[in-house]
Amino acid sequence: MSPATFSRGAPVNRKKLLWASLYLFLVLLPAGVGTWAARTAGLERRPWLDEWASGLGMIGFALVVLSFFLLGRFKPLSGLLGSDLLMQTHQLFARTAVVLLLLHPFFYTLWRAPPGPVQASPAQALRIGGGSWGLATGLLALGCLLVLVAFAVWRQRSDTAYERWRLMHSALALAVLGLGLHHTLVSGGYAQFGSVAAVWWVLAGLALLSWLWIYAVRPVWQAAHPYRVETLERCADRIWLLEVAPRSPADASFRAGQFAWIRLGHRWPHRDNPFSISNAPGAGGKLQFLIKEAGDMTRGLATHAVGDIAYVDGPHGRFEIPAEATGVVLHAGGIGVAPFASLLADAVARKDHRPFRLIYADKHVRQMVDVVALSGADALRDFQLLPMVEQADAEWKGLTGRLDAAGLTKALAHPAVAPVAESACHLVCGPEPMMDAVETALVARGVPPERILSEHFKYDFSGRSPLAGRMRRNWLALSAASLLCMLLALAW
């Protein structure tokens, strides 16, 4: 399972507005410093299209550099904003960067200049300084970026192994950073100002440090603080229960609903996978995971055994029940029940008296985990489980069907759920089509978006729910705001 933990439907608050403003400021910082330096030096203005072309290039490369910080692997950011928001920003603004960087060379006015007695070279026509090296590194950086984004977008539709893709994605990102920085410093007109060059060096240096943190520093720390596999057993068809314990309990603390990146036996950092933690925080720092056989690592779980070494990077994310919720309805599809097991176990430990309802859907009952036994949810004062399967046998007494708009209507009309659902907070986790359908149906029923919290497995651009649409509108608005600010700076 590959979770992400920003609550898409959470209301915009001051912290998120502050971070959005900071992000926009950093995107515009190189271009803003360049414009200020040129105006302060009293330089003659270039043609407007040349300025616009430079601005597109600077904003585009700034988006590339900032994407290194949006991987959901930095606890202060993921704990505040959630990994889903960070990864969605990473994914969406990569598209913005590609568009701006593809467009920026074609606005230069020398493309339209009449031919002179000596034909201009391609580098001169693009107004690229630094000789052929400036042109070469710029084109190479753009090519690497196109390949990187294309493979990221279409990976789910291909047979590319996850670990191989992680390695390639990481290598291409470093190539884009290095080649793009060289092109910017030697070919960018504004980068010839010392203040602008310093901004680029600082931003690129911090991006490199963030890469080293994930792929060098953290793996070294994990090797010095390994976990040990204490439980590894099948708990349903193709579902495993993995429990690991740290060498020192002080090494592990987490909040219910968070997730961690784990590796079993391997030291290579690109071979870790994210899984939701399925137990409640407690003494000893043990972590439990419900893992479905679906990918490179998960298909090999049977080859591991109790006593094996595990490396853990976490906890990360933020997927929690709001304190102000008067009731809670959990919508789980398949292995999406994992974070709910943690939240229910934590509610038991805290003696939470609010009503809890778990709508748990899967293809057939053999794949369903006994989440009540795992979490101890039957100790809650007001708890009801509503299982739903697509393939039911004659002895099945629960709901039948998929957890889509029709299935949700049946579940919410159930006598155990109906009195709670109208005013409850709804948490959603499962396959993307199921989550899309549930989010859309809940909004259509009049549930306010701030009471719909989602944990998404994939960072897919194809989400069709109103909450996914709002995320894309925010992306477009912030992209447009950056271009508008650039226009204002050019007019200054």
Which short descriptors sum up this protein?
Rossmann fold; 492 residues; six-stranded antiparallel β-sheet; alpha/beta; 15% strand; Elongation Factor Tu (Ef-tu), domain 3; six-stranded parallel β-sheet
The structural domain count equals 3
Poorly predicted residue ranges = 1-12, 114-127
Number of strands: 12
Residue-averaged pLDDT: 85
Strand order of the largest sheet: 4-3-6-1-2-5
Please compute the radius of gyration using only Cα atoms: 25 Å
Describe the SSE topology.
Elements: H1 14-40, H2 48-66, H3 75-81, H4 83-103, H5 122-125, H6 131-154, H7 162-187, H8 194-224, E1 227-236, E2 239-246, E3 259-264, E4 273-276, E5 287-292, E6 309-316, E7 328-333, H9 338-349, E8 356-362, H10 371-375, E9 383-389, E10 399-400, H11 405-412, H12 418-421, E11 425-430, H13 432-444, E12 452-456, H14 466-491
Parallel strand pairs: 7-8, 7-11, 8-9, 9-10, 11-12
Antiparallel strand pairs: 1-2, 1-6, 2-5, 3-4, 3-6
Helix pairs in contact: 1-2, 1-8, 1-14, 2-4, 2-7, 2-14, 3-4, 4-6, 4-14, 6-7, 7-8
